[in-house]
């Protein structure tokens, strides 16, 4: 397809971009607000469970969010966009309303609804909502993808405020979760009305095994996926444990409740600024810089004990984490020379991230122990983040050599 075949906007294009923004707000934005639930469950609702066991709820949600992208990518490539959009939106609404019925100290009820149901719904929505932007945008595809993904962190600002002030307030857990579920359901309904495909499914159906084998021969893609897998182990640590950390340091409920909001607000700013950064710097270069900064900041969490320290940590980590969240999808697009394989490659990348998202938070919870020894989690996750950054450096070097080799061939 020629470049001029892309409308680069139009009513349908911009409506689809806004719809994708709302999907991210209502799914991934909700998932990365799990720190509110981690604190509430540990302190009030699931007091018979350890922090590590509670973290399995959020990590399973994160795992299914990523792993379902593998299925969603294949279905999207085969033309099932609307089936995924409508079906998964209904599943997200149903799961959150069912969560409101979970009883105190009934771990399995929370795990099934929030860990499995909501995780599957979010995963089935993510890849299609991002990949469909390639129907309308080519030159500005990376910028539009970062715009859409920024909805996740705006959601991660709004959802903690709403949840902390409802489940910890007069409404209580059941009615607070119902209010949140109604809000999310309304936004997903708007997204379903806005989003439209433009191009028919490819006549040549992408064979998953063939595409996976092709990916297995792409060394840059392999190191990119390794980097995502390892870095995500560290990525979720502050998202899950920052609010609980603030509570355990006796910084007051008001500040503790807004510690996640501070971090996620900075993340939203980071996601928006990423659209500017990718104009002036190569996407892999920015990705390397922000993952390195995140790793150093997580190590610095060892010395965070005061309100000022939590604010500085939240702003810095949130800003760089927001850029990371915005850029991993454009990196996958950059590593995909054939757009007919975009859904499959994004799905494989999601599966790689799923492994890190599944094991990271429970390991961190186990390292904390019931005595909450915070430095252990900071050291482990700081090292994991740095190792993930190293994988991205290798990925970039391979890409540079590939471009240089292609340039030499053209000269010949």
Task: Characterize the structure shown.
- One of its GO terms (molecular function) is transmembrane transporter activity.
- Its main location: membrane.
- This protein is mainly alpha-helical and 412 residues long.
- It has helices at 10-26, 28-31, 34-45, 51-77, 81-99, 107-131, 141-167, 172-194, 208-216, 219-248, 253-280, 283-300, 307-334, 342-368, 374-411.
- It has 15 helices and no strands.
- The model has no long low-confidence stretch (mean pLDDT 86).
- It has one domain: Growth Hormone, Chain: A.
- It is globular.
Number of strands: 0
Helix/strand order, N-terminal first: HHHHHHHHHHHHHHH
Please report which band the strand proportion falls in: under 5%, 5-15%, 15-25%, 25-35%, 35-45% or over 45%. under 5%
Q: Helix/strand-derived class? A: mainly alpha
- Tell me roughly what share of residues is in helical segments: over 70%
Low-confidence stretches: none
Biggest sheet architecture? none
The CATH topology corresponds to Growth Hormone, Chain: A
Rg from C-alpha positions?
20 Å
Span between N and C termini?
27 Å
> How many structural domains are formed by the residues?
1
**Please, what is the average pLDDT?**
86
Report the total helices: 15
CATH architecture classification: Up-down Bundle
**CATH homologous superfamily classification:** MFS general substrate transporter like domains
Given this structure, which CATH class is correct?
Answer: Mainly Alpha
Overall, the morphology is globular
């Amino acid at each position: 397809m020629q470049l001029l075949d892309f409308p680069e906007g139009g009513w349908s294009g911009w409506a689809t971009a806004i719809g994708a923004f709302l999907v991210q707000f209502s799914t991934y934005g909700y998932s990365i607000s799990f720190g509110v639930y981690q604190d509430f469950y540990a302190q009030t609702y699931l007091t018979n469970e350890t922090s590590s066991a509670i973290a399995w709820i959020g990590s399973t949600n994160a795992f299914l969010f990523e792993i379902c992208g593998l299925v969603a990518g294949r279905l999207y490539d085969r033309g099932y966009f609307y089936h995924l959009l409508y079906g998964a939106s209904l599943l997200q609404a149903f799961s959150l309303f069912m969560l409101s019925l979970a009883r105190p100290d009934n771990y399995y009820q929370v795990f099934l609804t929030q860990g499995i149901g909501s995780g599957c719904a979010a995963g089935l929505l993510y890849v299609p909502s991002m990949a469909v932007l390639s129907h309308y945008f080519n030159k500005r595809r990376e910028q539009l993808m970062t715009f859409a993904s920024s909805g996740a962190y705006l959601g991660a600002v709004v959802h903690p405020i709403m949840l902390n002030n409802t489940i910890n307030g007069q409404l209580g857990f059941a009615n607070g979760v119902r209010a949140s579920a109604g809000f999310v359901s309304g936004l997903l309904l708007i997204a379903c009305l806005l989003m439209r495909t433009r191009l028919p499914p490819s006549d040549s159906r992408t064979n998953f095994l063939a595409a996976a084998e092709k990916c297995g021969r792409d060394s840059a893609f392999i190191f990119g996926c390794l980097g995502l897998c390892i870095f995500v182990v560290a990525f979720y640590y502050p998202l899950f444990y920052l609010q609980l950390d603030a509570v355990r340091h006796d910084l007051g409920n008001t500040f503790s409740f807004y510690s996640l909001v501070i971090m996620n607000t900075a993340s939203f700013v980071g996601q928006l600024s990423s659209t500017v950064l990718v104009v002036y710097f190569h996407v892999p270069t920015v990705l390397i810089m922000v993952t390195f900064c995140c790793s150093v900041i997580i190590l610095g969490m060892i010395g965070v004990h005061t309100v000022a320290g939590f604010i500085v940590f939240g702003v810095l980590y949130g800003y760089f984490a927001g850029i990371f969240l915005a850029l991993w999808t454009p990196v996958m697009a950059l590593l995909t020379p054939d757009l007919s394989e975009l859904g499959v490659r994004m799905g494989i990348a999601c599966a790689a991230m799923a492994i890190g998202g599944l094991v990271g938070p429970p390991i961190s919870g186990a390292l904390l122990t019931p005595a909450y020894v915070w430095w252990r989690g900071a050291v482990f996750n700081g090292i994991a983040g740095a190792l993930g950054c190293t994988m991205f450096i290798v990925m970039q070097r391979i890409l540079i050599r590939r471009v240089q080799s292609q340039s030499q061939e053209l000269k010949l």
